[in-house]
Amino acid sequence: MTYVPRVYDVSPLYRSHRLLLVPSAVEDAFPRVIVEAALHGTPSIGTNRGGIPEAIGAGGVVLPHSAGVQAWADAVRTADLNTLGEQAHRYAAGFARPRLPDLEALGLIPR
Predict the structure, then answer these.
(1) Domain of life here (predicted)?
(2) N or C: where does the chain have the smaller number of CB atoms within 10 Å of the terminal CB?
(3) pTM for the complete prediction?
(4) Which structural domain range is residue 56 located in?
(5) CA gap 85, 60 in Å, rounded
(6) Is residue 70 domain-resident?
(7) Which contacts (CB < 8 Å, 24+ apart) does range 14-20 have?
């Protein structure tokens, strides 16, 4: 697990990590960090707060916001990261499809 302070080019981070954890207790309407990670094939595990479940879709695992550390550890340990990563990418592409060529051309997501 790695805590990452603010960075402006997140692509290398997504490419070097296999999973994004979003243990948010905040009612974020639609956390785009999940979609950004998914466009790089990185699945997420997050809470059922705000728009997190919608952003994750089939590309990750959604836990109750009251889930304890053991539930998070179990979810990390049992997640099929390859399958979830593929599903995450397909799901997120639906949100970004009109902009995918632009994002790929800028090198912000892999082709």
Answers:
(1) Bacteria
(2) N
(3) 0.81
(4) 11-105
(5) 8
(6) yes
(7) 14/39, 14/40, 14/41, 14/42, 15/40, 15/110, 17/42, 18/42, 18/81, 18/85, 19/43, 19/44, 19/45, 19/76, 19/79, 19/81, 20/44, 20/45, 20/60
Q: Which of 11, 63, 74, 75 is nearest to 39 (CA)?
A: 11
Let me know if residue 40 belongs to a domain. yes
CATH of the domain at 89: 3.40.50.2000
**Taken in order 87, 91, 96, 101, is the CA torsion positive or negative?**
positive
Model confidence pLDDT, tens digit, residues 39-50? 999 999 999 999
Would you place residue 87 in the very low, low, confident or very high pLDDT band (cuts 50, 70, 90)?
Answer: very high
Greatest alpha-carbon pair distance for the chain in Å reads 41
Residue 6 lies in a domain: no
10 Å CB burial of residue 91 (0-12, 13-18, 19+) is: buried
